[in-house]
Specification:
The chain has two domains: 164 residues, Rossmann fold (3-Layer(aba) Sandwich); 141 residues, Rossmann fold. It has eight helices and 14 strands. Strands 10-9-8-11-12-13-14 form a seven-stranded mixed sheet, with helices on both faces. A five-stranded parallel sheet has the order 1-4-5-6-7, with helices on both faces. The mean pLDDT is 94.
Amino acid sequence: MDELRVFTGNSHPTLASSVCDYLGIPLGRCEVFEFSNENIFVRILENVRERDVFVVQPICSPVNKSLVELLIMMDAFKRASAGRITAVVPYYGYGRTDKKDQPRVPISARLVADLLTTAGANRVLTVDLHAPQIQGFFTIPVDELTAVSIICKYIREKHLQDLVVVATDIGISKRARDVAASLGASLAIVEKRRLGNNDATEALNVIGDVKGRIALTVDDEIDTAGSLVGVVETLLARGATEVYSCATHPVLSGKAVERIGNSPVKEVVVTDTIPLSDDKKRDNITVLSISSLLGEAIHRIHTGLSVGAMFE
């Protein structure tokens, strides 16, 4: 492990420190700051020549600053002759723009992939991408981890009776099916449509039986929580006795926390792929750590072991 180094930018140093604690190594030393003219500066404070370098940096709020920090850090490691550079991106920002679903719009998820590769990344380690095809946007190896096992372990310990797992839309149904299989629960799907580009959605129909049962909604991320609240209200209107919600990434932008606080959802379970500031913490929002998941994956990549075997 002497050749392994883990560094972090400013987007989530707490997670990077927890990963290093799992690995039993110190966090790599570097300076990452912004000049008064808003230019970002990076300086590596230790020798990384021919070392196996992992840079932990979710592309989260402030999204553009976090992304540019990551790009400049990788350029610095490349120019410092690092042996291999792995971008550890627990949350892949711009991942929702993964296809041309309207005329004259970009595929930003592909652009970010090109930027990471050009900046010097030799491989990418990420968690629960919004769309699996994003892996194909890269010409370098991509290891996608999933937080399903961590979330399911927590839900299983609650001993919820007569549980039904609900996919919040058809696109997330495969992941919801995996959760349902792990929990030994049945599956339901909410059919909905997005209204324009303003993050508004309209719940249309519930496919499956939720009446008289405890519902657990599954999604990859919670952004403004407008969709989540609409699904919760729809399920309760269809006869669900209680509704729990789980998602990997707590983006929680805009009035999300206020909406969750005012909604009838029993508990929202997320992970720490994105840092949750004190003003966003609520009694009904539970945050689970993925540091051991990332730490084990980093250990396996460094030592040449199978990452896929973690989920078998």
